[in-house]
Amino acid sequence: MKRRDFIKALSYIGAGSMAPLVGVRAASGAYPAAPVRLVAPFPPGGTVDILARLVSSQLARELSQSVIVENRAGAGGTIGADAVARARPDGYTVLFGAAHHAIAQTVYPALPYDIRNMVPVSFLGRVDHVLLVTNKLPVKNVAELIAYLKANPDKLAYGSPGTGTLHHLMAEQFKAVTGTRMMHVPYKGSSPALVDLISGTIQVYFETMPSALQYVRSGSVRALAVTSRQRSRSLPDLPTIAESGVPNYDAASWYGLFAPRGTPAPVVTALNGATARAFVNEAFVEQWRRQGAEPGGGNPDVLRKLLLSEVDRWSAVARDANIRVE
């Protein structure tokens, strides 16, 4: 093509038609040649949104390109995930994935995508949950809670930010391994559930560490234990559920970057490398830990193995508790 013909051809290409050229440039090693869209599939202000904005800021520095957080909330994180699954596989739309997406594969029977078919990019880390009770409940530790539940079956209620969420399944797992019974009260998010926990309308709640900290430190609610196998550096004096008499109980939120199926390997490598560099930046890691999160890292296979094991694990819990979201 002559130079004048090439320039003439370009003049007919609208801004919306540049996406294929961006994909070509990305695959050829020029990635990222345009801003990257990081889809946070939960509402602004929550743990996913907070962490996604920290990650986007650091990735922008590492990639020398804007990384823009887009909140696409709804249906337990599946609306945002579906949007990414359908996006052009060029690395310019990626998902801030979470444990909720492993659970969704079981509890949503008509899910239009499969998270296992998306491309794992980077494991971003874990966030502990805290077993909280209302101050109006006369229990001071996990053993006392179990004893109270067994003496009062189905008389206490636990909340969750929605049916089929990780909070919901953590509580069901706790019930199963302790042989206790509680009623489930689903809410539209954690904020209204925590309001009712403080008032005593519900009595038990499994909340993420970043959201729980302010309420625990203010004394608005009582923390009994953390859900992970190790104690949290955010609340180092708080025991784990496992060391409180429930052997092998270990559950936490986890987060990872996912790209649409078919994303070129060089793009995945570039994103993974940027994440790896972020997690050796002491200032960033300190910000991350201040939110109650433990840093991630590793190659994409780390995230792939975690995802597959979590799908299997929570599928069993959801099946045993007969949890489905129609």
Range of helix content? 40-55%
Query: SSE order, as H and E?
Result: HHEHEHEHEHEHEHEHEEHHEH
CATH class of the largest domain: Alpha Beta
**Considering the protein shown, what is the CATH homologous superfamily of the largest domain?**
Bordetella uptake gene, domain 1
User: Tally of extended strands?
Assistant: 10
Structural class: alpha/beta
Total separate domains: 2
Shape: globular
**Biggest sheet, open or closed, and with what strands and sense?**
10 strands, mixed
Report the portion of residues in β strands: 15-25%
Poorly predicted regions are: 1-28
- The fold-level CATH name of the largest domain is D-Maltodextrin-Binding Protein, domain 2
Distance between the termini: 55 Å
Radius of gyration equals 22 Å
Average the pLDDT over all residues and give the rounded result: 90
Discrete helix count: 12
